[in-house]
Amino acid sequence: MTENQATDTAVEQGQADARNILALYKASQAARSSDERDEAQRAVDEYPSSVQVRSAWTIYGEPLQAAQYRIELAGGGPASWIIGDLTNDGGPYDARIEAQGWGTPAFTITLDDDEREALLWFVGQFIIEA
After folding, report:
1. Which of 13, 61, 83, 103 has its C-alpha lying 20 to 30 A from 4's C-alpha?
2. Which domain holds residue 98?
3. Cβ atoms within 10 A of the Cβ of 120, count?
4. Tens digit of pLDDT for each residue in 52-67?
5. Contact 68/54 with Cβ under 8 angstroms?
6. Strand 79-85's sheet: what is its strand order?
7. Does 48 sit behind a cis peptide bond, omega within 30 degrees of 0 on the bond before it?
8. Whether the Cβ atoms of residue 17 and residue 113 lie closer than 8 Å to each other
9. Does residue 130 form part of some domain?
10. What is the model's pTM?
C-alpha cells in the first residue's frame, strides 16, 4: 500500500466515524420511548474502543488534573480517534477527529457544522465536568 492509499483509507475511516457519530446523535434526539433512548445510549456506549485523559504539566507531588482527552474509535491502520482539550472543570472544551494510516502522519478530518455539533455531544457522553 502506498502512502497516498494509506492516507486515503484513513480519510475514509475518519469521515465514516463522523457520519456514524452524526447518525447516533440524530437517533438519540429522535428517541421517544425509554426503550428507544436505552437503545440509542447503548449504541453510543459501545462505539469507542477506549476513553483516555492525560494531565497538564504539574509540580511534582501536586495532584494531577486531566487537561486533554482522547476517545479511540478505530485502532490499527487506519486508526481514528477524537481528541480535545478539557476545561478547568473537566468538561470538553473542543473536539476534533484525527486519523492515521500505516506509515503516515496523523491529520485532522474536516467536519461540517452538524458533524461538529454531534461530535461535541458524543464527547459529552464520556467526558463529564467535575
Report:
1. 83
2. 3-124
3. 17
4. 999 988 899 999 888 9
5. yes
6. 50-55, 66-74, 79-85, 96-100, 107-108
7. no
8. no
9. no
10. 0.87
